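2024-03-11 09:14:02 INFO worker-7 job=invfold-0412 stage=load source=structure_tokens
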């Protein structure tokens, strides 16, 4: 199964959920902190032979995103940023913030109810996790 994850307010950049600890390397190079549980979840998904994609509409470079996850000891199989997203929808006459079917994604994890509405409209599966959801990793695991 291919599972994609949003970045902003889902895995990073939110002061309302707990974050994984950073080491000195992360602090020196100002690497963004991941939501608590991300590393363990990604390792479990890899162990179960799932592919992990990052699907963000941010303009971060693919190499920056890849490096961030690598610095936490986890790898991702594919990264979709805003530029890739726009190219994938160029000739499809589809207007939405994320469109996982373009990348053969089976399940997308996001914090946005708007993405959930797009999933309902265009027929792709979305799990919405909130910033206050302490058991978000179990929610993901139960959905696969």
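2024-03-11 09:14:09 INFO worker-7 stage=emit residues=144
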């Amino acid at each position: 199964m291919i599972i994609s994850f949003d970045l902003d307010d889902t895995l990073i950049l939110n002061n309302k959920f707990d974050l994984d600890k950073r080491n000195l390397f992360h602090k020196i190079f100002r690497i963004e902190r991941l939501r608590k549980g991300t590393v363990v979840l990604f390792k479990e998904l890899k162990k179960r032979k799932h592919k992990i994609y990052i699907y963000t509409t941010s303009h971060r470079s693919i190499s920056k995103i890849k490096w961030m996850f690598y610095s936490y000891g986890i790898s991702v199989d594919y990264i979709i940023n805003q530029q890739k997203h726009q190219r994938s929808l160029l000739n499809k006459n589809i207007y939405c913030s994320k469109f996982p079917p373009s990348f053969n994604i089976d399940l997308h994890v996001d914090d946005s109810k708007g993405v959930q509405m797009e999933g309902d409209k265009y027929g792709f599966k979305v799990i919405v996790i909130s910033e206050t959801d302490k058991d978000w990793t179990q929610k993901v695991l139960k959905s696969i």
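2024-03-11 09:14:09 INFO worker-7 stage=report msg="Residues 38-47 form the longest helix (10 residues)."
2024-03-11 09:14:10 INFO worker-7 job finished
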